[in-house]
UniProtKB/TrEMBL annotation:
This is Amino acid transporter transmembrane domain-containing protein. It is a multi-pass membrane protein. It is found in: Membrane. Its main location: membrane. Keywords: Membrane, Transmembrane, Transmembrane helix. It holds the Pfam family Aa_trans.
Length: 456
């Protein structure tokens, strides 16, 4: 499913066309859409689960080390329910905007801009384009950061296979073996080559293979949990507040499907059944994350590392799985690189020679891959990157922005309710997310600084 490109002059212009509830309901946005191959409830659910349970789940067990198993399970469930409800409000708000603007298909940035542009307050209206740019920037930071995590997974896997040892370290283990950063630097050119592929259709089939390999790795983790620790001994129940904030960022990163829910709804045959897909999909995501994280932590306790495959023994099976993870994540990296680059190049393309636009696209693809590689080299810690992206980017995408958009949409119609209960609901829920955003970002940013300085 290819995202719609965003830009400084989005078309069409968002404005209120339906001024009453009757006028809104007179527009059937489903019939107005042109979906040659719409998805049903099961297909939408599958896309949602696939959008959430990517490479992030390979580090979920480390998140449980941070918070402790009991605190981890409770917060895993809490943030799963919290995220599901916020995403429900986001999609419901988008559907109201379709009817209000007579525009039947939107992207996440479209919805954000439309919500502000259709607000009765002039100041809010003027902020609509700015809000759109902020959404674009945060989405790019999140997705490029995820690509950096993928580069780390690839490089850590290759490093362990080259050194042929169960031990792991950023430093080279053994005579003449280089630092992890050297492996990251060496991977930049191969990753540039695969990211030069301009059409997503050539890459998408490989993501199915990657999903199969990841699923095999997760089943293997459960096997080793039962084998290594059948009595579930040595599990820490609760840790410190600081470490719990690290956990929140990592677990939100592992579960979030905020970037895909609106494209999924846009492509459904019956979008009114989206809540069914959301409930089923988020239930699978929450259960899957908790299940794998719990058993991964049980198997390796405080020795847990991300990706989980580096914990596997150096048997033939273990080595094959480590190698397959490196290969499939390598291909999947190109798939995940595609959406943020499309956003960035839409803006950049206006400043380059239009007669050589494809040539410049190749150049800028190489530049962005190199920048992502530099990010991974500077901060070679999957855990710290996941935690930062979860608190800085995804608390906005999955919690704060959906609530803010919802508040703008209901402000005039249907209104804030008796005693402004809808306002207080949004403010209360947003307060939790803002607290996580500020405190979690500070904690995880300090972890990144420590990694950069070589203190971790």
């Amino acid at each position: 499913m290819e995202p719609v490109r965003t830009g400084p002059k989005p078309r069409p212009v968002f404005k209120v066309v339906a001024f009453t509830e009757e006028e809104e309901n007179a527009f059937d946005y489903v019939k107005d859409r042109q979906n040659p191959h719409p998805t049903g409830v099961l297909g939408a659910t599958a896309h949602m689960v696939k959008g959430a349970l990517g490479g992030g789940i390979l580090g979920g067990h480390v998140a449980y080390v941070k918070a402790g198993v009991w605190m981890g399970l409770v917060l895993n469930l809490f943030f799963g329910v919290y995220m599901a409800y916020c995403l429900h409000l986001l999609v419901w708000s988008a559907q109201q905007l379709y009817k209000r603007t007579r525009i039947s298909t939107m992207t996440y940035p479209d919805v954000g801009e439309a919500a502000f542009a259709c607000h009765p307050n002039r100041i809010v209206k003027k902020m609509s384009r700015c809000f759109r740019y902020i959404i674009d920037i945060i989405i790019c930071i999140d997705l490029y950061g995820a690509c950096a995590c993928y580069q780390l997974i690839i490089s850590k896997s290759i490093k362990q296979l080259v050194e042929n040892t169960q031990l792991t370290s950023m430093e080279g283990l053994g005579e003449n073996y280089p630092h992890l950063r050297i492996y990251l630097a060496a991977m930049i050119v191969p990753i540039i080559l695969i990211c030069l592929i301009r059409y997503l259709k050539y890459l998408a089939p490989f993501s199915l293979g990657a999903n199969a390999v990841v699923f095999t790795a997760l089943c293997t983790a459960v096997y080793y949990a039962v084998k290594n620790n059948p009595s579930f001994l040595g599990l820490t129940g609760v840790t410190t507040f600081w470490e719990t904030l690290e956990f929140v960022g990592m677990i939100v990163f592992s579960m979030s499907c905020a970037g895909v829910v609106i494209p999924i709804e846009n492509n459904m045959a019956d979008p009114k059944k989206f809540p069914i897909s959301l409930v089923i999909g988020m239930s699978i995501i929450v259960f899957g994350t908790a299940f794998v994280s719990f058993f991964g932590y049980t198997a390796y306790l405080e020795y847990s590392e991300a990706p989980i495959t580096v914990n596997f023994p150096m048997t033939v099976y273990g080595k094959v799985l480590k190698g397959l993870i490196a290969i499939m994540i390598y291909v999947t990296h190109a798939v995940n690189f595609w959406p943020p680059f499309q956003i960035c190049y839409y803006y950049i393309s206006r400043c380059v020679n239009q007669n050589r636009i494809v040539f410049w696209e190749y150049i800028w693809r190489a530049i962005f891959v190199a920048l992502v590689g530099a990010l991974a080299i500077g901060f070679p810690s999957i855990n710290a990157l996941m935690g930062f992206l979860g608190t800085f980017c995804l608390t906005n995408m999955a919690f704060i922005w959906p609530l803010l958009i919802h508040l703008c949409v209901i402000w005039e119609r249907p209104g804030l309710g008796k005693y402004y209960w809808r306002l207080w609901r949004c403010v209360g829920m947003m307060s939790v997310a803002i607290f996580i955003f500020f405190c979690g970002t500070v904690v995880n940013a300090s972890e990144l600084v420590a990694v950069f300085k070589g203190e971790l």
